[in-house]
Structure to design on (286 residues):
């Protein structure tokens, strides 16, 4: 059953979508940026970090949740940092609740605003599915113009942790990464990724190899799968950068680790009429 009107709500004064699966799993997305701001699996515990100092205003990025980075990662191109998708209003195309879970599809199409910055026609859809112990977030992009286009993208997921120094991210052993702080390439050793200082890395992947990572903390573990997103960004601003961020309480860098499913190293190339999708799945572990 289509449930568009019943899932529309307000969140911190902004238009939002509230998803509730029959088993109790829940998610909330802002229409601006199609940004997830909350995810609770069936156990009811919040798994995404959202800043209490986040700014909710037209055209302003919201600190936390799952910002959609498109069509440009960071400052790797002429557009504003992390592209325009996260600060534009998306529309709710579909909402469904079934025994399997709750689903929403949000859409952003090229417009005069996007064409003035990026001369390509596109349609992007973000599909969010919440059920039991898992959250699926899928970004699909279609080239609706008549010329090729290319883009970089990421799901910039802020994962909530109790204490970032006690968390570790497994699954990147032996992988090459770009240390964005030094501009140098390095290799992850045998150990898991831990955070005891600022971390800003792009782990390079292979387009045909999907990845599964485990975020371990005392007492709980989260599995993170990514499909069709070759790269993984790991980010924590640590003390000094956090102090410089007006929309982050000073010690809250301890409360999250960003683990981002991304396509950066090899931009996605789409001929006219072609489409691409990439997905990140979060699963709480027993
Ligand atoms: O994805 C990591 C990163 O590019 C970092 O360099 C960091 O500054 C972060 O994203 C946050 O960017 P934002 O524009 O949201 O402040």
């Amino acid at each position: 059953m289509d449930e568009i009107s019943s899932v529309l709500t307000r969140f911190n004064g902004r238009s939002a979508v509230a998803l509730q699966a029959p088993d109790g799993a829940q998610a909330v997305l802002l229409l601006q940026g199609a940004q997830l701001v909350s995810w609770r699996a069936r156990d009811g515990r919040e798994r995404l970090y959202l800043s209490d100092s986040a700014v909710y205003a037209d055209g302003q990025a919201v600190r936390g949740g799952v910002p959609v980075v498109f069509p440009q990662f960071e400052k790797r191109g002429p557009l504003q940092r992390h592209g325009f998708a996260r600060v534009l209003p998306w529309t709710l195309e579909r909402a469904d609740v079934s025994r399997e879970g709750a689903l929403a599809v949000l859409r952003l199409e090229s417009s005069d605003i996007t064409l003035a910055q990026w001369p390509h026609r596109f349609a992007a859809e973000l599909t969010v599915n919440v059920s039991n112990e898992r959250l699926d977030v899928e970004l699909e992009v279609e080239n609706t113009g008549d010329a090729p286009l290319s883009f970089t993208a990421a799901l910039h997921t802020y994962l909530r942790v109790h204490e970032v120094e006690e968390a570790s991210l497994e699954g990147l052993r032996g992988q090459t990464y770009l240390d964005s702080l030094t501009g140098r390439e390095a290799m992850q050793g045998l150990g898991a990724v831990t955070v005891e200082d600022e971390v800003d890395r792009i782990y390079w992947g292979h387009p045909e190899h999907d990845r599964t990572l485990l975020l371990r903390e005392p007492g709980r573990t989260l599995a993170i799968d990514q499909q069709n997103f070759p790269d993984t960004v790991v980010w924590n601003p640590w003390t000094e950068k956090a102090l410089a961020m007006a929309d982050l309480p000073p010690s809250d860098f301890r409360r999250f680790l960003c683990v981002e499913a991304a396509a950066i190293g090899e931009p996605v190339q789409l001929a006219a009429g072609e489409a691409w999708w990439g997905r990140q799945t979060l699963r709480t572990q027993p």
